[in-house]
Fold this sequence. Notes:
The structure holds two protein chains of two kinds.
Chain A: E1 2-15, E2 18-31, E3 35-39, H1 46-54, E4 61-64, E5 67-70, E6 73-74, H2 80-86, E7 91-94, H3 98-101, H4 108-120, H5 124-137, H6 143-146, H7 156-167, E8 174-178, H8 186-203, E9 206-211, H9 214-220, E10 223-228, E11 231-237, H10 238-243, H11 248-255, H12 294-298
Parallel strand pairs in A: 3-9, 3-10, 7-8, 8-9
Antiparallel strand pairs in A: 1-2, 1-4, 1-5, 5-6, 10-11
Helix pairs in contact in A: 4-5, 4-7, 5-7, 7-8
Chain B: H1 2-29, H2 34-39, H3 46-56, H4 62-74, H5 88-123, H6 128-142, H7 145-159, H8 182-189, H9 194-229, H10 232-239, H11 244-281, H12 287-297, H13 300-328, H14 330-333
Amino acid sequence: MTLLRIRNLSVDFATASGSFRAVDSVDQDVDTGEILAIVGESGSGKSVSMLAVMGLLPWTAKITADEISFDGQDLLNIGTRARRRIVGNDLAMIFQEPMSSLNPCFTVGWQVKEALRFHLGLDRRARHARAIDLFEQVGIPDPEKRLSAFPHQLSGGMSQRVMIAMAIACKPKLLIADEPTTALDVTIQAQILDLLAALREETGMALVLITHDMGVVAETAERVSVQYAGQKIEEQPVVDLFERPHHPYTAALLDALPEKATERMLPTIPGVVPGQFDRPAGCLFSPRCKFAQANCRTTPPPALGPELGYARCFYPLNTGERIAS
Amino acid sequence: MLTYVLSRLLTFIPTFIGVTLISFSFIRALPGDPIVVMAGERGISQERYLELQQQFGFDRPIAVQFWDYLTGVLHGDLGSSFVTKRPVWDEFFALFPATLELSVCAMIFAVFLGLPAGVIAAVNRGKLFDRLLMSTALVGYSMPIFWWALLLIIVFSGNLGWTPVSGRIDLIYYFPNPTGFMLIDSIASGQSGAFLSAVRHLVLPTIVLGTIPLAVIARQTRSAMLEVLGEDYIRTARAKGMSPFRINGIHAVRNALIPVITVIGLSVGTLLAGAILTETIFSWPGIGKWMVDSIFRRDYPVVQGGLLLIAVMVMVVNLTVDVLYGVINPKIRKR
């Protein structure tokens, strides 16, 4: 069943030097209980599209879409008051920097209980009991004592556990994790990912994992959506994507994994992601693509069918035979 | 926390010596001889002049005079006024409640208007209210106090006749002043209308004295709020589905308070300095007016003692502010 449904989502930021399109006509479905990974380089719009769903973008952002619906409710034309009843309740999000995402002036217990009070209307005693349960659930030792700790007294990994406890406090149907492990030590990264996967098993919530780490994707995700310069350029189940990437960008990304390096120099993708002023007229990846033809540079390719991973490419790879358009 | 306060109290010692030295030398650097000033236009005979000089100790070397003064101060003796012959200590505490009452009212006025105004301006950044408030604050900050006071007197006392021009209470009321705070004593006296009269006398001086702190606090609150509103934890609060009122009023303000408390603390110094002007204009019988009068009379002990007590007051307020930091933001408590 489709839990989150996004159709033709675009986000434009008003900047001093004109409008900048951070997300460009993205379609995305998230099913109940699944783990979807959204991968892409920095600035590929992966966080922005999810922040748009949450309604957390600054006022400089202009959101246009044919549809954004969550659990049967329209999130596109929803009022701010009605949105606040969904966000933090059925739809939750955790962020990249756990240390700065917690308010330094309040105890972590206070911050966790706040959501319980406003969304579930629990009384003081029930809130306290539930907060202790939550801390145990996310693996925080000595929860009773930790509830009265301030954020600066916790490590990064502990802070992220608190963030997760806060996010799952109201048993959300969908948890969006925006690079939840980027700021953490490698050993802690694995623990946090295991925790998220375990919580998914326990609660049956769906999980959107925004990351630029292909290793994280391979370990955790079930389905992968690849974004480039604001566009979704490919989407496949994780095994298929790693075995048969259809878009040249995905292929290049997989080739650039350090694990695959055979020489002293790590493989890279030449060039940089197009910015505000050098967006190509045709395929956005064409300036960096080794397969690009003349029409790639002039005409934007439409998304292909599901059998080719919705790849936005005229010449998809790994098709058995290359389709000439 | 206790060791922190004690270590801060130790730093009071050099400040204390500095203030005594400065007040001691500055008042002596002013041209004019206290004995000549006391004698007035009649003049004074040479014998009497020398006699008085000996009596006040002006004939001794300046270093000895300072040493005498310093040891006296350390024993709690600030000397006696040349003019009234009463101890400086007694005079100060007789007049201080008036200044304190005015300063507290001015601070309440400044904080209770400035803080919400700054928050609302930050939340509505770039909109009409924000622009209006910030330009008004700039005007308020740059306006000379005496001129602002005269304007208000002309309009509200002169043209409209709503407020009295000077003093603390109408002359028809007379009652003992056990606390020295007119608002409290007027209620305690039980005389009808006395409290209202005291309030009406307070309004204009409060506004005049509170204007600069108000402007500073509003601007500081706004900029602190703008910074805090961009923080990650504000996004977290929004992701939790909290209302804007709760986010701005609880999550953000608490964090924005640190720089605001700082300027409030610093404003206390400005306030006491501003009180000198305000009290003179409104004939407010507080220490500001007392200091000004004493400077004109070259009343050395009063000027020295008054400056010292004001300085101690400012130091105590600053220490209180530093302690408050830790109360508001636990991260600072960890030093």
